[in-house]
């Protein structure tokens, strides 16, 4: 099995279908199927069973997984080490973060990069899920969780806050909730539990056990939009909610702080194109008012 074959195998293993594997590899589905059949023929082994639920690895497929992942790690390390010496500010940099952070902070940073380095292309992905940076799913991530992987380096961009927000119409109809009542008599909007199973059953420290969960969403934009429409009370970052005239901050003195981290792989952080994007992100945060971000680090 060579590395090209290993890439096909890993994509099918992780995606579970030929279509998902093709999407991961950016090739067509027929090519994935043809190359998988050729790989199985060359190994004289069946690696997957095709079932109604998708492609399920056989015993041989399970045994092949560690070796294929070792090849992937070696290929990724080779790419990172060689790119780490590249001083050209051109090429592609992959950035991942959440939708709301992208709108408020990443897009202004990308505008700076585009002005200064027109030959540099940024691929921006937005998701609530954490990308695997060791597999080159992203070169830069902006997260509210500091990674503990020793291969990654992180820099704190600033400290932001979240509060409780509701629309003016909602508060006119339902009134301000009383503290200590677990939001009794009110409706709340929360993130889908499947996405954030570890989150506490509280919003800004106030339990919501007595509230009606009106809606569960999977993105910050949907949280903002539904709160604006008066569906319920939502926990939102102040940088997103404060500029919206339809929203009112419930209990203005109640907030929770969280740190935002810039994360890069240790092998890539000195690459010129990655450094250019990282510096632009840091510049955007350094320009924020003190209220929006505190203890901002200097570039380095």
TrEMBL record:
The keyword Transcription applies. InterPro entries: LysR-type_TF_proteobact-type (IPR058163), LysR_HTH_N (IPR000847), LysR_subst-bd (IPR005119), WH-like_DNA-bd_sf (IPR036388), WH_DNA-bd_sf (IPR036390). Residues 1-58 form the HTH lysR-type domain. GO terms for molecular function: DNA-binding transcription factor activity; sequence-specific DNA binding. Keywords: DNA-binding, Transcription, Transcription regulation. The keyword DNA-binding applies. GO terms for biological process: DNA-templated transcription. Pfam families: HTH_1, LysR_substrate. Belongs to the LysR transcriptional regulatory family. This is LysR family transcriptional regulator. It comes from Bordetella flabilis.
């Amino acid at each position: 099995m060579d590395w090209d074959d290993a890439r096909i195998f890993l994509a099918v293993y992780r995606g579970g279908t030929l279509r998902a594997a093709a999407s991961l590899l950016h090739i067509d589905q027929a090519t994935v199927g043809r190359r998988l059949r050729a790989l199985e023929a060359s190994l004289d082994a069946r690696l997957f069973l095709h079932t109604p639920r998708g492609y399920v690895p056989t015993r041989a497929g399970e045994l092949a997984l560690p070796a294929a992942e070792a090849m992937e790690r070696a290929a990724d390390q080779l790419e990172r080490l060689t790119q780490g010496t590249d001083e050209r500010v051109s090429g592609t940099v992959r950035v991942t973060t959440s939708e709301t952070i992208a709108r408020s902070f990443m897009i202004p940073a990308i505008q700076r990069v585009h002005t200064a380095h027109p030959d540099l292309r940024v691929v921006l992905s937005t998701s609530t899920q954490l990308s695997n940076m060791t597999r080159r799913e992203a070169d830069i991530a902006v997260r509210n969780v500091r990674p503990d992987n020793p291969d990654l380096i992180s820099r704190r961009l600033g400290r932001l806050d979240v509060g409780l927000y509701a629309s003016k119409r909602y508060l006119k109809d339902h009134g301000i909730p009383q503290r200590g009542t677990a939001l009794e008599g009110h409706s709340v909007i929360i993130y889908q539990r499947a996405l954030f199973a570890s989150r506490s059953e509280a919003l800004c420290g106030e339990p919501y056990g007595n509230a009606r969960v009106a809606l569960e969403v999977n993105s910050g934009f949907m949280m903002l939009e539904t709160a604006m429409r008066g569906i319920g009370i939502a926990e939102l970052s102040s940088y997103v909610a404060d500029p919206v005239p339809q929203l009112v901050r419930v209990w203005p003195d109640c907030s929770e702080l969280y740190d935002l981290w810039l994360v890069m792989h240790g092998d890539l952080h000195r690459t010129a194109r990655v450094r250019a994007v990282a510096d632009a992100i840091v510049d955007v945060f350094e320009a924020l008012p003190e209220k929006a971000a505190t203890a901002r680090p200097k570039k380095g």
